[in-house]
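ASSEMBLY PREDICTION REQUEST
Request ID: AP-0331
Submitted by: J.K., bench scientist
Number of chains: three
Total residues: 1277
Priority: normal
Notes: Please return the full assembly, not individual chains.
Input sequences:
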Amino acid sequence: MVEAISSPSQATFWFIHGRVLFWMVNVLGSACFAYIVARRLTPLLRGQRDIRFDRPLVRLGRLLQFWLAQWRQPRYLTAGIIHILLFAGFMILAIHTVSLVAQGASNHPAAPGGLYGAIADYAATVVFLCAVIAAIRRGIFKPSRYAVPAKYGKSHTAEALLVLAFIAILMVSDGLFEASGAMWQGQHGGTPEVLGPLTLGWVLKGALASVPAAQLRSLHLGAYLIHDLTFFVFLCFLPLGKHFHVVTSLFTLYFAKLDRGAIKPVRWDVPDEQLDQVKSFGVKTFSDFTWKHMLDFYSCADCGRCSDQCPANAVGRPLSPRFFTIKARDYSFQHSPMWGSAHNGQPLIGGIYSEDEIWSCTTCGACEAECPLLIEYIDKIVDLRRGMVDDGKVPQSLQKPLKALESRGNPFGKMEKKRADWVKAKDFAQDCKVSILDGGHGADTLYFVDSITSFDDRMQSIGRATARILHSTGENFGILGTVEKDSGHDVRRFGEETLFMALREHNTEAIKASGVQRIVTSDPHAYNALQHDYKDMPPVEHISQVIARKVRAGDIQLNPLPESNAYGNGDGNAVGNDVYTYHDPCYLGRHNGIYDAPRDVLDAIPGLKRVEMQRSRDRSFCCGGGGLALFYEPKEDQRMGVKRVQMAAEAGANVIVTACPFCLVNMEDAIKVAGMEGKMTAIDLTELVEKQMR
Amino acid sequence: MARIFAYIVHKGGVADDSAAELAAAAGKIDATESPVAVVTGWGADCDAVCESLRASFGEVWKIANAALAYPNAEIVRQALVSVLPSGSLVLIPHAHFGTDLAPGLSIKMDAAYVPDVLGIEGMDGAVLKLVRQEFDGQVNAHVRCDISTGAVITIRPGAFKPVERTAAGGTVVDKSAAVGALTARRRYLETIAAETGDVDITRYPVLVSIGRGIEEQENVAIAQDLADALGAALTCSRPVVDAKWMEKSRQVGSSGQTVKPKVYLACGISGSFQHLAGIKGNPFMVAINKNPKAPIFRVADVGIAADILEFLPELTSRIREK
Amino acid sequence: MEILVCARRVPDTSENEIEMNSAGNDIARDDLVYSVNEPDNYAVEEALRIVERSGGNVTVVTVGGDDDEEILRREMAMGAKHGVLLSDQSFSGADGRGIATILAAFVTKGHYDLILTGVQAEDGAAQVGGMLAALLDYPFASLVDSIETLEGKLKIGREIEGGNREIYEIDLPCVLSIQTGINEPRYVGMRGIRQVASVPIPTFGAADLGVNGNVTGAAVKVKRLDYFVPPLGKGAEMLKGDTAEIVGQLIELLKAKGGLK
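STATUS: Completed
Returned structure:
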């Protein structure tokens, strides 16, 4: 008779029958886990409402893309590959692991074998190797984005290594269990389970060759015990730290925000007309967050990719998205503990967050574009700003433009009646008549100019270039003129929702009254506002899209650049040809996915040599921010714009082309501050096209 | 015509420059009679000031009292009310002490009040015609003041050029006895001196000064560069200090320091009188401002309509080339 | 502590371009936007901080008409408990002393421990605070940049020349004019103002205050006749040319005047 190695359910562990022991472990472990998860869910029940159950098919599709296919992971290749392998391994091993755990508490045979068993063995081996590699990378090579600056507390490396240790132990104990079982069977005349060559089990089996039977039995049972205990300890450890994402990622990704570019309303359950009745705007205490935002805090994997890409973090502002989330998570853990009552309600601003920290964000979206868990940041920052505005905590540097926006409809305090004066510039007005609608009808297309292009001496040239381009292609267009007010895009993002709604209402009426069929703008902030913040608008396009279309259709002919371009050096002496690079504005590129149209336009100019900066498209580096961000005085080591123009120089360019007036302001300022005058020029796409059109 | 009294601000036994300006202003009201200098104080310092004023004033009224040893406007006012005849015209310099003293004085003397006068056009019957400014100095205004029951007028520092007076041979009249009981419901405790910065801007012959036109803290370096190239000190106007871009010790103006340089470059400064009040000695003033209508161009010797953020780096690099 | 702050509605210089009208005798008023006098916000903010520390209420008062109510609401949105409008036909045309007389009449009707004003308004007069104190026979201090509450009195700092500060002890009740920069006034947005939109603002006229005929007409001793822009006179010699040429001219001038070695 073939003597089977004792199976864990039938063995005796220190006077306790195996089946009883493991039944108890399984039940207690599961109960403990369930309890912990229930405690973690409690704050969510007290959070604000969030609308996340709509469009299930779209959500399902994205779940498959971002969860199952790990879509964002490869953006950081090394860590990405390791994670994909770990994730795939976990998915494959799921059945195996569960049945292994069940084994101890029942008389059922071991985990499924056959093809699945073989694949599972290899998966476990890969998981083990990845865990070791990850531990070495984390513990010895220490990539910089994992570092924890002193002000945020102790290093998180211990937690990371502990989890990797759990994983390794699970794999090794499982392998040992299998190996010892197969070894025994082989020694006692049965058909051993086939362990695939080079799998962990196979290696361990080899190591067990000279181990006597009694010890094999002990190893077998011991390995099982260790596996089972480790499994439940690990399981219960998950909700206590960053590995909660293992459980919550499915939900966070399913419920992720679908409407990019838009900002959440003040309250999902309160329509605009009833907002006056809301006592308190914005997020002031933790339970003012929506349940989804709280879920986000739990789901952070502490990977640091967001902060690695964050321009505010890069220039030394007090904002780091990673720690924005981790601090909130730790606050929640601390104030809704495992036992004892929750003692919430402390103000967040002045507590875990500082005012400067929250004002430092330019809403560029780099963090959201990077996060593998699609954690949202901008809505939370806006909600916190709404809370500060509600409490009057607005820095003086922002109070002035806000007041000017309220009384004059633009942040500069310039008189409304001068908003359309830019069309009257002598040389311009002679050959390009711009129709000013001023409340009346008469145009198919509205050119929405917005404040900076209307009033800033330098940016008015973008307005004129855009008008010339539209004029030359026979567009029947007009501008709103003095009835136009600021789009309010950044008023909203800086938390002044009431003023934003007033501006939006005013502009919406003016646009509707004009009867235009479509809107064109040269300002990506205005574009984003009209596209996402405003409702029931005619179709909106950015001027780069219009130009690209017209170039493709042959309606716009672009002259080649002269042999010896003189853009880069203001002194007119050619020093070889200019090299151009395109800077993706955040609100054109990342938030609205318009990357190719401007590039196609540039590439359609004969003789234009274009290079890409290393950080381009959805990895573009914010220029410093637009709208109200121009007025805020942050504490920083360096200007974002300066870093960006240095990136352009590193790419070998001496001309930066951009498609946003705020980017242009920041680039031109940065060129001066960085002392690169004469070595670098910035120009708007419309200005370049207009020059080459003549 | 009522008598004209000029309240003399003094420190350490020395009369302030405004004394001569008040005399000049008084002359515009009434060219015939010399105004009376009024000095409040105590002890040797008070006596010294009165002596020194004999050369420029026909009469000097000394009001000496222990309670007046420190110039506390609340107490000075009581003294003046007891001593000055009703219906008088009282001239006071428009500065920190004057604005503290004058409005209340006009009420207690039941007199009219016109603050911060920069021009006097003369009398028209019982009405005095004056010129003031409003809206941060953007517009002037003609003002008429009925002085039939007297008037308290504060004079803008620097608005009236001191007139060279030959020895007026004035007498010092001691009016201390006329002062009644003085109550101190505002009691002086101490003066806290401004933090002395690293640089004493009053010692530099050449100053590069920046105002709001510098736009941002990071741009201050551009001006510092120019100052370094010229061996000058970098100074500023009040808005730059309020925005915390520079230390208070660098502020030139009525609430900052008074400087007497040889050359003064006003960069991105609009030219408010509070700032100009801190510049004495008539230096060679160069104004650079992108607004060609800025008031600074009225007082500067040389003007350049340009954006300082572009102009200064050019200037600095050319200076360094030499 | 019951604190009264005197505020005023003015054309804000930062959001208006002050220009002469076509007749050349007044400023162009068609496009002016009005708001509360900026320095008054510092006074209200300081008052709010004092009552937050020591209890009490802040009342904001202004002399004017219906148009001026909006600034009272704004300060109430900031946190002032009460807003009061002093309005009467006979008040129009009052000069600084007239305004102070009207305010004094209101003060005597109630009980206030402390009265604050902003340092000055658009006319640059800086007079109402000092006059009010004299009319009430309260002690006064101008250019106050710090306030510490003690028993029955205050310890205040006052700004003087050279960046120095005088420290005084001043008995209550008193009047103080508050220098800008003493604090950072909190923000008030449209929402805040909407929330106080229906709070009643009591109005007092001449009869209520007992101010009859002694603030306007013959009582006005100081009258502004017009506004004008002075003839430019010589002014600065503007340098001409392109930047390089101007820089060159300037360097020559600096050398000549001893600015450059």
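REVIEWER COMMENTS: The domain at 272-390 of chain A is CATH 1.10.1060 (Fumarate Reductase Iron-sulfur Protein; Chain B, domain 2).
SIGN-OFF: pending second reviewer
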